[in-house]
Structure formats: C-alpha cells, structure tokens
Design goal:
Distance between the termini: 32 Å
Number of strands: 6
Shape: elongated
Order of helices and strands: EEEEEE
Radius of gyration: 17 Å
C-alpha cells in the first residue's frame, strides 16, 4: 500500500488493496490478460466527518490486437460518485 496522500486541508489513508492479475492462454499463446483491483481508504478533512472511499477496477486486454476495456467505479461512503468505462481500440 502507498503512504497516506496529503492534500491541502485533507489526507487519505489507505486501508486495503487487493490486486489480481490473470492470463488466458490457448495453445501456449496469451490471448487475454485481466486485472482486478479493489482499494479502500479513509479521507480526513479538517472540520468534516471521515469519508470511506472505495475504488473497484476491472480491465481486460487483448495483447494480439492492442485492444482493452476498463471499468472503474469510485464510491464515497457506499454511494457511487463515478462510474467510467474506457475502451481502447488501437
């Protein structure tokens, strides 16, 4: 885990991080690569109650064709604040 992230007037303290990398192999060749990330932390701001922050990210890549899809969800105190899907077609 990273050290606490300090910003002017606030600090985010990481509490957990789980990262899983996987590969799909067919006939000795990698046909897809996947990555899952779940990270949590607590943000402390001066004069405010602490906020639980969560990040969930799933990514799949096709190394043969340089294509990938990524889905990320950011939550504050259990409420989704950002939900993003990025598709790269290079």
């Amino acid at each position: 885990m990273k050290a606490p992230m300090v910003q002017k007037g606030s600090v985010i303290v990481p509490t957990s991080k789980i990262e899983v990398d996987s590969k799909v192999i067919r006939e000795g060749e990698v046909v897809a690569e996947g990555k899952q990330l779940d990270a949590s932390g607590v943000e402390f701001k001066k004069g405010q109650a602490p906020v639980q922050k969560n990040l969930k990210m799933n990514q799949i890549k096709n190394p043969e064709h340089s294509k990938s899809a990524t889905h990320a969800v950011i939550q504050n105190d259990g409420k989704t604040t950002k939900d993003v899907v990025v598709i790269k077609n290079e």
